[in-house]
Write a structure and sequence with these properties.
- This is DJ-1/PfpI family protein.
- It comes from Cellulomonas humilata.
- The chain has seven helices and eleven strands.
- It is α/β, with parallel strands linked by helices.
- The protein has one domain: Class I glutamine amidotransferase (GATase) domain (Rossmann fold, 3-Layer(aba) Sandwich).
- The strands form three sheets. A seven-stranded mixed sheet has the order 5-2-1-6-7-11-10, sandwiched between helices.
Length: about 200
Amino acid sequence: MPTGHHLRVGIFVFDDAEELDVVGPYEVLSAWAKISELRPEVLTFSLDGSGIRCAKGLRLVPDAGADDVGPLHVLVYPGGFGTRALLRDPAHLEWVRTTRATTALMTSVCTGALVYAAAGMLSGRPATTHWSAFDELAVIDPSVLLDTEARFVDDGDVVTSAGVSAGIDMALHLVARLESVDAARAVRREIQYDPEPPV
């Protein structure tokens, strides 16, 4: 596990990741870094450090590659169509398991939970994912306790969230958990996030 008091949060990015799965948590956590006395470091990284193209065409240049990102306290693993190839890649699943061994808090957005399930991380545990992917998740690991109603599920060292915009709610929960409810409220105000839909 990382030592010291400096919190480091890594958001893993990959081709065909869903845009808001990445930038929603990034916005929340970066706003937290800006206003918090804890000054957490928030960065993005891809497997090899190369740029990626998200599901709808947004291109991102990550801060680092997986080999040089360094120790993390929190990993955010987004969803998107790109997860389907990754959950069938034995080398990638081994990387996920290795990362888990050194990272205190593993989180996922949307279908990122499918990769966690394929890596054996969700066996017998409560979890959620995008509403359209529950059947897929059940096939990957029938022992997962599916929560089809929650915006996010906090099961200690693993936190999963439902689809797309739910990653914002999960990230605010992480701020509350890692610092305080007041800090999460301050971030929510900073980004002017109102969870009540306008229509």
